[in-house]
Amino acid sequence: MKKSPNWLAMPHDVMVDIIQRLPTLEILNSARKVCRTWQRICKDPAMWKVIHMNTLYDGEDLEILTKHAVNLSCGELIDISIEYFGSNDLLSYIALRSSNLKCLSLTNCFHMTGSGLSRAVRKLARLEKLHISLIDINEEDIEVIGKNCSQLKSFDMSKPFRGRFKCDYHAFAIACYMPQLIHLKLFDNEMTNDGLEAILYGCPHLQSLDVRMCDNLDLGGNLGKLCMERIKDFKHSSTQNRGFDVQIYDYADVDDFY
Q1: Contact 146, 177 (CB under 8 A)
Q2: I need a labelling partner for 43 at 20 to 30 A (CA). Which of 12, 22, 105, 244 fits?
Q3: Are 150 and 180 in contact (CB under 8 A)?
Q4: pLDDT for 46-70, tens place per residue?
Q5: Model pTM?
Q6: How far apart are CA 86 and CA 228, in angstroms?
């Protein structure tokens, strides 16, 4: 009769690799309770350098679990993403304990605000990537982010709502305070050609630019040609067929740029 494999006899680095492939919630709720060996592995701060809390609802207090994961990182956290939950209090908790954080992604975190994000980034000087979706921020918040996160290379922003008017405040603030950007995504923004032109000259290192659904842009003339010449990966909605067809220029993944 063939013997069952002794999983505890496998090399330590293999066990670590297996556990790290599990979702963060699975590690918190299950993996670290399997046996003493796995419990010991899950206490290693290196296990918690990356935390992804992406779930609609799991029937638990996700803020408490996220704070526990941050505590387990012992200040070594470099990448965290949160989706569909969270508050300004959680954001502040993360920032106070994660001075080495490089990547922060906040998606559909409806109870977080621009002012809460502004307070948090003052403690995140090493931040290189900030992606926010459906969190309302203004030009003052962008100024704070730019001034406190001088190493920021990637910035994604989509607003929770958009009026039928033209506004370049976000674009001008990005051009002024985020000159080091390599990747920029402004999805469904109210900016005009003036704002886009300011970004092109204020952010000379841009290699990836996504301005899809920015209906106030007219890229049929020289500005569109300039974008195609200057930006390696340029995505935009077709101005000739707005509402029916989307023309996308897509080359390399932005992660290749830094």
Answers
A1: yes
A2: 105
A3: yes
A4: 889 999 998 765 556 899 999 999 9
A5: 0.84
A6: 38
